[in-house]
Structures are given as C-alpha cells and as structure tokens.
Design brief:
With about 120 residues, the chain is of the alpha/beta class. Helices cover about 45% and strands about 20% of the residues. The chain contains 5 helices and 5 strands. A 5-stranded parallel β-sheet has the order 2-1-3-4-5, with helices on both faces. Helix 4 links the parallel strand 4 and strand 5. It starts with 7 loop residues before the first strand and ends with a helix.
C-alpha cells in the first residue's frame, strides 16, 4: 500500500463467503478489519463501538438494508462507504449517491476494483 493511509474498516454482508473473503483480503491490501457484521443492525452497533474510517457493506441484508444502516451510522460517525452488492438498478444507485457513497462495486468483486476503491478512500482521508 504505497503511501496510502491504512484504513480501519467495518464490514457487513449477509453472505458468509463474502464476509470471509473481505476479512481475508483487506489485511492483504494493508487495511485493518475492525469488525464484521452479518446484518444492517449489526453494522450500526459495530460502527457505534469502533468508529471505523471506512465501511464496506452489502445492500440487501436481514433486518435493515445496508444503505439504511449507513444513513444511521453517518449521523453519528463520519466514515467513507463502499457498497458491494449484486444490485445494479437505478433506485439502489440513487440511494447510494444520496449518501455520497465512495464506490459502488458489483459482485463478484474483483480484488483490483476493491483495491482501487480503498486507495481512493485512503487518499481522501
């Protein structure tokens, strides 16, 4: 991670494979995973406890979608947001845009796309 800042990242996804992938790949990209949640409400609780620099979240999750969770989190804890989702429809993209999401990545996520998004976030902080 040449010159870019190491980010403290909170992760949320309801898919165990995606949580495992992000938990494994983020340290390899030079970042610290400060917590992993499987629900939107879990992400809100996690972020309240650890105040991450960045959040990587899915949209569709049990109990609260990722964008609703981000809206709740950003009122208390400023953080950059990267959305990782299988949904590419206009409505989801517009909601993400309204929240000033830093990147909107479609699953399956390529390591290079995630690395670029994190580098932009780290460079902006």
């Amino acid at each position: 991670m040449s010159g870019a800042r190491r980010l403290r990242v909170a992760v949320a996804d309801d898919e165990p494979d995606m949580r495992e992938y992000l938990g494994r790949i983020l340290p390899l990209l030079g970042h610290e995973v400060v917590g992993i949640a499987s629900t939107g409400a879990g992400l809100v609780d996690l972020c309240r406890r650890v105040s991450p620099d960045a959040i990587i979240t899915d949209i569709k999750m049990p109990d609260m979608d990722g964008l609703d969770a981000v809206r709740a989190i950003l009122t208390e804890c400023p953080a950059a947001v990267i959305v990782v989702t299988g949904y590419q429809d206009r409505a989801h993209r517009m909601r993400a845009h309204e929240l000033q999401v830093s990147a909107y990545l479609l699953k399956p996520v390529k390591r290079s796309d995630l690395e670029q998004a994190l580098a932009r976030v780290a460079g902006a902080r």
